[in-house]
Design a protein that fits this description.
By secondary structure, this protein is an all-alpha fold. Helix content is about 60%, strand content about 0%. The protein has helices at about 15-25, 40-55, 60-75, 80-85, 90-105, 110-120, 130-140, 160-175, 185-190, 205-210, 215-225, 230-240, 250-275, 280-285, 295-305. The longest helix has 26 residues, at about 250-275. It is globular. The termini are far apart.
């Protein structure tokens, strides 16, 4: 992990500027909307897999889903479907998506930012996602564990779909920092937990207890899922998964940077949530925001001792 740590003067220095955006994108794990099951990240995970198994170009999926994730950082569940139902024209919808994207996309590599902005728009409505997507959306992550120590349980746990979609997007966004093409790291992010379709997550502590059987268990269960996918897609995934063991090529470095960033940002989220105070909501976030009845709202709170 040492070689992936940002340094003020090192080649990874741009990660510090990307971190706030990555944290906002990761919040899609915790945002839900009425009428659709799962978090926004889980919905995107299932959609991305459905698009891939339908035969759509991997690069088109990678860029458009990453662009949507950046716009989602501020727009949350306000997407093309919602805006169209509300009566906006295609041009108006695209304008909203671009405003959401532009508000947060400043730290991105300029070339990648331009390509992602061009990929914004209505996403395809593919058929049913493969069973692995639903299983990973239902499979909870273990969180932080260590051999010989009790598990620290945080609620609610993220799912493997949450994690894999987020790592895929992070990997695409981090790719220019390490000189990588974004597509292979995105695909590796989506597929790096195929074994957890069957294997419940006991974290690092559980992996240690599996001992010498760990690699065989992971390989067997991973191949089980790959064998059920269309041949060309399975071949692309095998190529991407072959990057996973090391960090000696740019695409592998992009993936590993994304993976560790997501794991640690997830822990930071729980720490922030545990430390959240009412004064942050009232003062920093202006919960009682400016408007025609703000004065009355403040009088009510003062009278109630709040």
């Amino acid at each position: 992990m040492t070689d992936l740590a940002p340094s003020p003067t090192g080649t990874l220095a741009p990660l510090a500027g990307l971190r706030p955006l990555l944290a906002e994108i990761g919040d899609a794990k915790r945002v839900r909307v009425a009428g659709r099951s799962g978090s926004l990240a889980e919905q995107a995970f299932a959609r991305a897999w459905a698009r891939l198994v339908s035969g759509e170009d991997v690069a088109a999926v990678a860029y458009s889903e990453t662009a949507a994730a950046v716009a989602r950082a501020r727009l949350a569940g306000i997407d093309t479907g919602v805006l169209t139902t509300a009566g906006l024209s295609d041009g108006e919808v695209l304008g909203v998506l671009r405003r959401g994207f532009d508000e947060v996309a400043g730290p991105l590599d300029p070339d990648l930012r331009a390509r992602l902005r061009a990929a914004l728009g209505r996403l395809p409505s593919p058929g049913t996602p493969p069973g692995l997507a639903g299983a990973l959306n239902a499979q909870p992550r273990a969180g932080a564990t260590a051999p010989g120590r009790p598990r620290i349980v945080v609620e609610p746990p993220e799912s493997h779909g949450d994690h894999c979609l987020t790592v895929a997007v992070y990997a695409a966004l981090v790719a220019p920092v390490v000189g990588a093409d974004p597509v292979a790291p995105f695909l590796l992010g989506l597929g790096h937990h195929l074994h957890n379709v069957v294997l419940p997550d006991a974290g690092f502590a559980g992996e240690v207890l599996l001992g010498d059987a760990l690699e065989r268990v992971v390989a067997t269960l991973e191949e089980r899922e790959l064998a059920a996918l269309p041949g060309p897609l399975a071949g692309r995934l095998r190529e991407a998964l072959a990057l996973r063991p090391g960090a000696d090529v740019p695409e592998a470095r992009a993936f590993h940077a994304a993976d560790v960033l997501d794991r640690v940002l997830q822990v930071h989220h729980h720490a922030r949530a545990a430390a959240f105070t009412a004064s942050q909501a009232l003062d920093d976030l202006e919960l009682v925001h400016a408007g025609p009845v703000q004065g009355y709202h403040l009088d009510v709170l003062a009278a109630a001792g709040l």
